[in-house]
Amino acid sequence: MTPHIAVILTDKERRILWVNQDFVEMTGYALDEVLGRSPGQILQGPGSELEAINRIRKSLENRVPLKDQIINYRKNGEPYLCKLVIHPIFGKEQELTHFIAFEVDGDLIEEEEELPLMNLSQKYSSSSLKGVEEVKLYFKLKELLQKERLYLDPNLTLKNVADLLATNTKYLSQVVNNHAGKNFQFFINHYRIAESKKQILDKDNKNLTLYGIALQCGFKNKSTFYKVFKEITGQTPREFQKQSGLT
């Protein structure tokens, strides 16, 4: 499963306009608590490295993209290693209009380069803010899937989800490709495999066959389940089960 990626959208003065649900879960701060404030004012604390603060400030002042890491603090005072990417966003006349930041908890991941959103070469500058709207839609999609568990429906389609998000299939497909680095079906299957692994490890399911678990997790047939499981995890379901000591 893709780890939490906090997204922060600010105006050109670096005052927060919007954050996603992953930001709320990562930091403990709700949107209404951070609106109009600067990210550094909220998240930095006594252990935040001065060198990192200066590097970040200099890049922002120079209006250039940056990738760095810094010790930040959650609302409860707990420090964590924040790995971040920040992009300036420019208008039609190349005037600065916004900044957008993507942040992950560095204590929970090893290679943030595997996350497309954490790739500094990704382009978000846009006179129409289309790139920002794509990001917002992507995270609305993630939140919808996690809350409603739509991936458990074997008949789920791109159109079903696009309708729920009040968008069209072409734009939603583009968003998933740009920000998840995979097509819609593969994106959904990642959720199904994560759920399958969870169910395989659940001792209450010891009387279920692997295919029975697959059906509960949104797969229509056994061959697709085995193929996708191996493609995503590098193991067959049986190998995963055996490695987990369940056979």
What shape does the CA trace take? globular
Largest sheet: 5 strands, antiparallel
CATH topology of the largest domain: Beta-Lactamase
Q: What is the count of helical runs? A: 11
Proportion of strand residues:
15-25%
CATH H level of the largest domain: which superfamily?
A: PAS domain
Corresponding CATH architecture of the largest domain:
2-Layer Sandwich
User: What's the number of domains?
Assistant: 2
Specify the oligomeric state: single chain
Spatial gap, N to C terminus: 25 Å
CATH class of the largest domain: Alpha Beta
List segments where confidence is low: pLDDT < 50 over at least 5 consecutive residues.
none
The count of strands amounts to 5
Order of helices and strands: EEHHHHEEEHHHHHHH
The radius of gyration computed from the alpha-carbon positions, rounded to a whole number of angstroms, is 20 Å
Describe the overall structure.
Helices cover 45% and strands 16% of the residues. It has 11 helices and 5 strands; from the N terminus they run E-E-H-H-H-H-E-E-E-H-H-H-H-H-H-H. It has a 5-stranded antiparallel beta sheet. Helix 5 (130-148) crosses helix 7 (169-180) and helix 8 (184-201) crosses helix 9 (210-216). It is globular.
Compact overview of the structure:
The protein is of the alpha+beta class and 247 residues long. The chain has helices at residues 21-27, 31-34, 39-43, 50-62, 130-148, 158-164, 169-180, 184-201, 210-216, 222-233, 237-243, and strands at 6-11, 16-19, 66-73, 79-90, 96-105. The longest helix has 19 residues, at 130-148.
